[in-house]
Amino acid sequence: MKNRGLLLFQILLVIETTLVSSQCLDDQKSLLLEFKRLLKFNATASTKLVHWNPSTEDCCKWGGVVCDKSSGHVVGLELDGESINAGINSSSALFKFQFLKKLNLAHNFFNSTEIPSGLFNLTSLTYLNLSNCGFSGQIPEGLSRMTRLNILDLSDYFIYGKSSLKIENPNLQVIVRNLTELTELYLDGVNLTAQAKSWSQTISSLLPNLSVLSLSNSQISGPIDPSLERLQFLSQIRLDQNNFNETIPEFLANLTNLKVLRLSYCNLQGMFPRRIIQIPALDFLDLSGNGKLQGSLPEFHENGSLQTLVLSLTKFSGMLPESIGNLELLSRIEIMNCNFSGIIPYSMENLTRIVYLDFAYNNLIGHIPFLQNSENLAYLDLSLNRLSGTIPSTYFKGFVNLAHVDLTSNLFTGNIPSSLFSLQSLRHIKLSQNHFSGSLDDFSYAWLPNLDTLDLSSNNLNGSIPVSLFELKSLNILSLSFNSLTGSLQLETVNRLENLTTLDLSNNYLSIETSHDSSIQMLPQFSTFRLASCKLKSFPNLGKQSRLFVLDLSDNQIEGTIPSWIWTLGDGRLSYINFSCNQLMSFQEPYVMPRLSILDLHSNQLTGNIPVPPESASYVDYSANNFSSSISIDIGKNLRFAYFFSVSNNRLTGTIPDSLCGSIYLRVLDLSNNRLSGMLPSCLLGWGLSLGVLNLGNNKLSGKISGIYGKNCGLKTLDLHANHLEGSVPKSLVNCTILAVLNLGNNKINDTFPCFLKNSSNLQVLVLRNNHFHGDIQCPEPMSNWPQLQIMDISSNQFTGKLPQNLFLNWTSMMGYDDGARSKVNILRYDFLKLNNFYYQDTVTVTSKGRDVELVKI
């Protein structure tokens, strides 16, 4: 401890000299001017160097210059962020400041040059900061001569040029072998690959006085050597963004002075030791981004030091302990996307200093926590849980700093608390996907002058939209979709929201009226414009929209022609168009589709040739129209990146193009209910790896069902019903382990009962009716492995023998069948592009008492 006290005295002495300026000596002034003369820097960005002027006598008063109190020698240069990009080389006057103790060149840009060797002649330095300077290459061995260093920062968070700093040869041991006085070491972003596993032993054996160890994103790995426990002065450990691929050793809990522990995105796994969280001095803990890391929160003792706790994107689970209320200094807690469950403890009311609270994406239940004592709360996110109950109208009263409220995807009921709309600090209100009801109160710009986002979608709100809402001048995002709002609205009313970029009023009971005069051109510049199911009778005049990205006008009453100006919207940015469920009949010529990702035109009355899909498309739906052409033989070239393609329920003729087999990303291909003929392309039947749904039913296809499914088959639906197909059922379907729907009805297939599918445990629908199947339905082994089977139709075949009684007793899922057009059981849905909430809905036609009934499972 005596040496430790001496070290502290030396550090305080350095601090004292850096705080006092004195009349500098002439030789020091000359050196400074010579140093500046060779530097290259951006004079307009510089705040210090630009004012170094020879006419000013006292150079100790120049920005960034610190002189010794008594001697006038320059002992400190603080030149961080001065836009220096060259001029420090082996002959620089910088290296002649023999009394220099502190040098800070952070946040300049030396254009990927190596650290100049002359720098290491400054052997009096106790502080050296070269972080984010753009130096690159091997850190020189000469650094080891700077034996008085207390603080060394060579961090390289941003990569300039072709390479960044590294320690390889000489290695870390050689570099730091003489730096025994170091108390703080920052090598964040420095490439330590060569020291990946030896770093902890090197540091623990050579740097006994270390209090700060920062090696974030340095490409180090585990194991963390137990010798690190020797560094009892350690107060901060920052090892974020490395790849340890191991559990965290419990010995870290013995570092009783530890205040900061940052281990985010380190590929940690196993169980995190609770004792570490209970270190008395610990005030900052970040374990986020370790998707395999498990753990639970311990009991927290009174008077704990913890101020920041970040566990997001881990597998921490269990209940939040009631003792969390003992963390009275806690200002930030993030447990987003973990597995916490149970109620939020009532003791949260003790967290009076909380500023940032994120409990999103867990399994929390019960009522919203009482936080009225947390007057400094600025960020509240409880989304994607199962919280319920009503929220008192006065709940948000007094939160004068609250800027963000997100209660999305919970089970809240009752009216939206009126106090929420009286907070001038609010920027984001997100309450979508709950059960809030009632009408919307009037809004006041005076109450909400900073409101950027208002998302109340997917609730049970009713009544009309208050006109006062359109006075919220700062509003950027407005979403009221999927409610029960009523009334009519002139679209030009939106003109008042001049900063609006996202508008979504879809799926209410609104009637939106559009004008075609010049005033409509004053609409804000939208990125997202959604007016689905708004009783529109014509296209709004959006011709001036140069930033549009998403356009949804589906389920309206728009009829006639799609105007050609639609395809020019967004100046090339337009990516999403949905005009489905209207009364559109044709395209205005000429038209060229932009680089769309989503194009949905289904359920209209479009005729003629199928439009060539844009080559960038991932989702194309032309189904339920009156297209009567053949499918272009080259259409596969335009579907190279497509996940979904449907032209079902049209009047298409001709054959299925082989080019479709080049669309290797397709998950859903639906060509059903057309007049397609010819042979079934064998490549489609061997497409099991990516294709989840293949529906070619109700066409005029002929030939055998040929093709081989591999072991990675991902097929969930195969529907070939109502064609002229012959031969047998492909035995390779046994590899399609997630197959749920197999519909081969109304063909000419000649085969026996498909006993080879006995282990297809996901099978839910099996339709073989009206073919030439024959033989005994009883298989050599009991068919007890279809636990989810709900529909089996084998009628109008030549099966013989007795129906096995045990067969039906094992198919218990049939007992949940609802005899009608719709079932309560969610079985025939194939999800794909889940981020866009897209799915494919199967239908199955069965015959009951001589009558065909189409079943849609939802």
Top keywords for this entry?
Leucine-rich repeat, LRR (right-handed beta-alpha superhelix); disordered N terminus; 24% strand; mainly beta; 11-stranded parallel sheet; 858 residues; 7 helices; 60 strands
What can you see in these coordinates?
The protein contains seven helices and 60 strands. It has 858 residues and is mostly beta strands. It has a domain at 244-390: Leucine-rich repeat, LRR (right-handed beta-alpha superhelix), CATH 3.80.10. The protein has a 31-stranded mixed β-sheet, covered by helices on one side.
Summarize the structure.
The protein has 858 residues and is mostly beta strands. It is built from seven helices and 60 strands.
Task: Quote the distance from N terminus to C terminus.
Answer: 72 Å
Low-confidence stretches: 1-21, 817-827
Largest sheet: 31 strands, mixed
- Apparent shape: globular
Structural class determined from secondary elements = mainly beta
